Amino acid sequence: MADLVGKVGLITGGGSGIGRATALAMADAGAAVVIGNRDASKGEAVVDLIRGRGGKACFQKTDVAQPEDAKALVARAVSEFGRLDLAFNNAGIDGEQVPLHEQDIAKASALFDVNLKGVFYCMKFEIEQMLRSGGGAIVNTSSIFGLNGYPGWSLYAASKHAVTGMTKSAALDYAKRNIRVNAVGPGPVETPLLAKGTGGDPNSYSAFVPMGRIGQPEEIADAVVWLLSDAARYVTGHTLPVDGGVCAQ
Ligand code: NAD
User: Fold this and answer.
1) For residues 76 and 82, what is the distance between their CA atoms, to the nearest angstrom?
2) What's the CA-to-centroid distance between 92 and ligand 1, angstroms?
3) What residue owns the CA closest to ligand 1's atom 10?
């Protein structure tokens, strides 16, 4: 297992699915974690779980679409644990699966506010803090939809391609300043988000996956912990597909 002992990390969308599994994995790897989530009860439940396992964690109610919330999340890491070394910018929503001309303009705006601007706001304040303390590592959640196109998902795919592009360019901005910026590109993963997007039948996506099954949140978490750890110290600007082979097709 990758080693995050002594590190302080934050996770957005840490109350459910991939974020929840990654919060647990980061804590198991030795990091103190700050969980930012829009839904307080889910985020607090993950904090209780980590503390019950002997780890260090706290919760900060956060809507990543609000810049002041992103700033407060970073400030909480510093006030609670003294520093910020790691960040997993993961909170996201999926939007509607309809052709582009049927996409709703107000819903499009909300999607970009969370999936695109939310990652920008968080990275901005995380990087300001990491520059002050001498470095850090960031992982953003993109998607296989951030690497390829899929019918009906033009806006979600646009938001995730934006995350892939922001990851690459930010990695270059800070490559000489000891801040690595990477992303994960999950394939279909068994979470409440996928259940909603598939009308309650997430396994319907298995047929599109070369390995013949959807992924588990813990399988994404393992990749994120590796990317955040010093084991990945020469990796930056990369979006790592964790997708059962989807992007190899
Ligand atoms: P999920 O719905 O299980 O969890 C998302 C969490 O984010 C929830 O706890 C929710 O409360 C929180 N959240 C939503 N909007 C927020 C906001 N504005 N501010 C703060 N928190 C907010 O979903 P998941 O499947 O774990 O998705 C996590 C990330 O992974 C998303 O970015 C999603 O686009 C991406 N992703 C998921 C899959 C998949 O198949 N599940 C595949 C590729 C990428």
Assistant:
1) 9
2) 4
3) 13
Topology (CATH) of 8-186+216-241? Rossmann fold (3.40.50)
Domain boundaries defined on the chain: 8-186+216-241
Spatial separation of the C-alpha atoms in residues 5 and 116, rounded to whole Å: 30
Q: Provide the whole-model pTM.
A: 0.98
Residues 216 and 218: their CA atoms lie apart, in Å, by 5
Q: Please count the other Cβ atoms lying within 10 Å of the Cβ belonging to residue 68.
A: 10
Q: How close is the Cα of 102 to the center of ligand 1, in Å? A: 23
The pair phi, psi for residue 33, each rounded to 5°, is -125, 140
Q: What is the ipTM of this complex?
A: 0.99
Encode the chain (249 residues) as per-residue pLDDT tens digits: 679 999 999 999 999 999 999 999 999 999 999 999 999 999 999 999 999 999 999 999 999 999 999 999 999 999 999 999 999 999 999 989 999 999 999 999 999 999 999 999 999 999 999 999 999 999 999 999 999 999 999 999 999 999 999 999 999 999 999 999 999 999 999 999 998 888 888 889 999 999 999 999 999 999 999 999 999 999 999 999 999 999 999
Whether 121 is catalytic is no
